[in-house]
Design brief:
With 179 residues, this protein is an alpha/beta fold. It is built from eight helices and seven strands. Strand 2 and strand 3 form a beta hairpin.
């Protein structure tokens, strides 16, 4: 697999949910519909034109599934809470039907309720056969969500830890360069 650009990654079924949702994950001054469908516009074309009915249906389906509030497809994303903005980012990538999802700091800056909803989406993806890679600096999140943990120190992998062997102590030891 030769991946040289985001477009190449998308062709190979890889979705990257950036930690910087406001700077890189969303077009803040645009609508929920625009943002949710940005990575999958080709699926909503008919005869070379966008099918707005299909866009709205897909958006409303995602709003309901992810419990986005307010439940409006025309709402400007900047006005949403951090948790609802994160759900819009997630919906954008769910619409691509990727099979590998890379979540970078998926719960940074969102409330506890939204965190649970994000975790539920990640678990559902795994149950449906997708691979989920989570990058996180929060130990409780890592311990609670991971089947396998790859620990890095200064850009190099220092240890791979299975869920049953994972403790805060051995993760921190590997993260500090010890093994």
């Amino acid at each position: 697999m030769d991946i040289k650009s985001p477009k190449d990654a998308m062709k190979h079924g890889i979705a990257f949910l950036t930690e910087d949702r406001k700077g890189q994950g969303l077009v803040l001054d645009n609508t929920v519909t625009f943002n949710m469908n940005l990575a999958s516009l080709k699926k909503c074309k008919s005869g070379g034109l966008l099918n707005y009915k299909k866009l709205k249906e897909k958006t409303m389906e995602n709003i309901k599934k992810l419990d986005i509030n307010p439940p409006s497809d025309t709402f400007v994303v900047r006005k949403l809470s951090g948790g609802n903005q994160q759900k819009v980012v997630i919906a954008k990538w769910l619409n691509t039907e990727a099979n590998i999802f890379i979540f970078d700091e998926p719960t940074r800056g969102i409330d506890v309720g939204a965190k649970v909803e994000v975790y539920n989406v990640m678990n559902e993806l795994v149950l449906n056969g997708a691979a989920v890679i989570m990058i996180s600096s929060e130990l409780p999140e890592i311990l609670g969500m991971s089947d396998r943990i790859i620990v890095m120190h200064e850009g190099k992998v220092t240890k791979e830890i299975k869920r049953e062997d994972a403790t805060q102590e051995n993760i921190m030891l590997a993260a500090s360069g010890g093994v």
